[in-house]
Design brief:
This protein has two helices and four strands; from the N terminus they run H-E-E-E-E-H. By secondary structure, the chain is of the alpha+beta class. The strands form two sheets. Strands 1-2 form a two-stranded antiparallel ribbon. Strands 3-4 form a two-stranded antiparallel ribbon.
């Protein structure tokens, strides 16, 4: 059975189910993002990441924050590659978030966004 997908759904599913790395770049088809997945990246590959000035453990990280750019060999906190399988707790959390958003958009309850 064929399913309609896009690069974000494909790469996001692999990242959720297998870990590894979710990679984004500019699409070759136009000025919009393209998502890719990799099980691993070379440990000597320099990558840049934006991190907060003061890191704190939080239940929900801030959406935007003041920080700095770091050049590192491997992103801190990257999920290691896992054998194929689904983390059902993680998937259920995001399914609930999408469901609440869908209900609020449909006007049948859920979150109230705006006034």
């Amino acid at each position: 059975m064929k399913l309609p997908l896009n690069c974000f759904l494909f790469a996001g599913w692999l990242w959720l189910s297998r870990g590894g790395y979710l990679i984004m770049r500019r699409s070759r088809s136009g000025p919009f993002p393209h998502a890719m997945w990799a099980a691993s990246i070379p440990h000597d590959l320099p990558v840049e990441q934006y991190v907060p000035f003061a890191r704190r453990d939080r239940l929900f990280p801030p959406i935007v924050f003041y920080g700095r750019v770091e050049l590192v060999a491997e992103p801190e906190g990257a999920l290691p590659y896992r054998e194929p399988g689904i983390d059902w707790g993680f998937a259920a959390f995001w399914a609930g978030c999408v469901g609440l958003l869908a209900m609020s958009v449909a006007g049948i309850g859920g979150l109230v966004i705006g006034g």
